[in-house]
Design a protein that fits this description.
Elements (H helix, E strand, L loop, with lengths): L17 E5 L9 E5 L5 E4 L9 H4 L2 E5 L5 H4 L2 H8 L5 E6 L3 H10 L14 E7 L4 E8 L6 E8 L4 E4 L3 E9 L3 E9 L1 E5 L1 H6 L7 H10 L7 E8 L2 E8 H8 E5 L2 E5 L6 H10 L5 E5 L7 H7 L4 H11 L4 E4 L9 H13 L2
Helix pairs in contact: 8-10, 10-11
GO molecular function: 3'-tRNA processing endoribonuclease activity
Length: 349
Amino acid sequence: MFDAVTGQPQLAAMRPIFRPALVNDPFGDPGLYVDFKFEKRALLFDLGDLTALPPKKLLRVSDVFVSHTHMDHFFGFDRLLRLCLGRNTSLRLYGPPGFAAQVEHKLAGYTWNLVENYPGDFFMDAWELDANWQARGTRLRCRNRFRAEPLAARHLPGGVLLDELAFRVRAAFLDHGTACLGFAVEEKIHVNVWRNRLAELGLAVGPWLKELKDAVLRNAPDATTVRACWRDGSGEHERVLSLGLLKAAVLRQVEGEKICYVTDVAFHPDNVQRITALAANAAQLFIECVFLDQDADHAARKHHLTARQAGSIARAAGAKLVIPFHFSPRYADREADLRREIEAAAAAT
């Protein structure tokens, strides 16, 4: 099958591997939940009010990225902790300077004399970062009553906090009157599949395509064998082909997508430069939009962005889609005004 407009072979439906969504409505606590479409896993950005996320979703979280520890970004830690207790699972948490000690202090506020009886030994690794991207980590294990166990320090060049086969998470140091982190989730390569070319080889779509894409992301040798398995009305089928043949015949590699999350930042040149670099050409930019520009002086005192300022940053970054959040409650009846202002600034030429 060919596209009726472009005349090009038709691509199989290849959605981005991420499914990002704000945790709360735009007047609620900031937070972003990034689900993985093809894994039982999610990333969580900020730990404010998490009641909108059911336990099933929270238990998918493998990594938590905290911008800073003001209460509306951190008090949901306890809910996540309570869900994880007694389970054989773990979490990695990342935050600004002092973060590991703050996690330790939260845990020290509880009594842990009965945790030896819990069926699972849940643990978390808390990493705090400095402006030179040195990371100091602490492991906190349930059955050790969450006593701090120092981890070997690490250097994280370029602010890359997490670097995996298909994606990376990058951070930038920003200013909110205190150190605050902005984050970008970057898909490394997006591997598209030509549907018609699969058919020409007598193949069908199926879970085996994920294994094929993983082999490409690993830079596996072309001689690597790939088992194409699928089921249809006539039964189960299996073919064994080389990775090199499949790459040449049915795959197209394109640049991956980027999702960016920025909240609680003052509007000044250094912040603007760092945010535009972090969010450059982002497919989706989630950015705070706290005040209307008529209240820019108040926003400056609070170290927050106005809607116009947020829109201008989005435009400078070349973000394709801008999703505003963290609206001040003073505009409870003026949400449309905030949205119009950021949209106008983002679209201005």
